[in-house]
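Review box. Two proteins, two foldings.
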Amino acid sequence: MTSDKIESNEQDEPVQFFPASKILQIRAPLTDKNLNAVLREANTVLSNNQDNYLDWVEEDIRLLEAAYQKLSTAPDSEQANRDMFRISHSMMGQGGTFGYPLVTFVLHNLCKFLDASSQMNNQDLRVAALHISTVKQIVTHRLSGKGGEMGNEVIGGLLNVINKRKMEAS
């Protein structure tokens, strides 16, 4: 083995570089700025958009509820499950970015639950609905950060239901 190359049984193939698409070049142009300055600028943009997040997340909750309705009418639909997972996963990432880690926590658990459930029964649907209801409560009560005592109660109640469901399923 040489210091600059890992030995392999595969034949070396030439490296190909693909230029960024025009859209990517517009959205993320190259810059000569200092990385710290770029990060400060990004943090400023995120801070300025934190109030907008609450509008976005309310629309996302409506989408999540619509996906839940589809899943509840067709609990064995892989597509309905994937749609709900996709929306949940997107919202999960936004929660932490905009100061709502409880949203991230709840939707991370919902994603794990959906990922493990190819077919949903009535109890599974109730657990999924509880996750959605919990996210709505977090947003309605503006439980940013850890949410204090109310955040602890909301998460504690959700975890109790999840653990109860796991015991029933065993």
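Next protein.
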Amino acid sequence: MENKKGFTPENGNQGSPMNENPGSKRRFIIYIVILIALIVVSFIDFGGGANEINWNKFENEMLLTNDVEKVVVVNRERADVYLKPESLDKFSGAARGSGIFSGAAPAFYFTIGDVESFEAKLAEAQKDMPKEQRVVVEYKTEHDYLGSIISWIFPIILILVLWWFVFNRMSGGSGGGQIFSIGKSRAQVFDK
């Protein structure tokens, strides 16, 4: 006993629209899982970077004890603190190792309000130090190209996936799209 859709008591409902293309569904689910995994990984902090400190800790515990090798101001908003190699063991939580592309990595960082006030505070803190012990300040601009690309591409990909999903649902089924068959009965007559 078999109907147009391929129903037999032995093989179940093989011809249902849900089972017409199981490979397509699996592929779609895999893409969604990969997308979710990429989003989750982008928000996870793996603890490999520098730890945040405040100005008081920088000045009192590092700068005045002559443990700082240099300070790099990044994008006019963050100061990366590089400690002298012999001073790394004095501070718990100091990042060790090197950066992927830049050589040595900063041990700590802190946020600065603006560059002028940071320079004034640093000059005031170092006014009694000999010139050869004063900290070198460098300025650097970093660009987040990956973040910029993702912020433009992610919404486009999301729209395309939703568009594909809607049109895939509309094209499946018999006699038109499934999206327009809301409330219609799928009852079939079986002859005995």
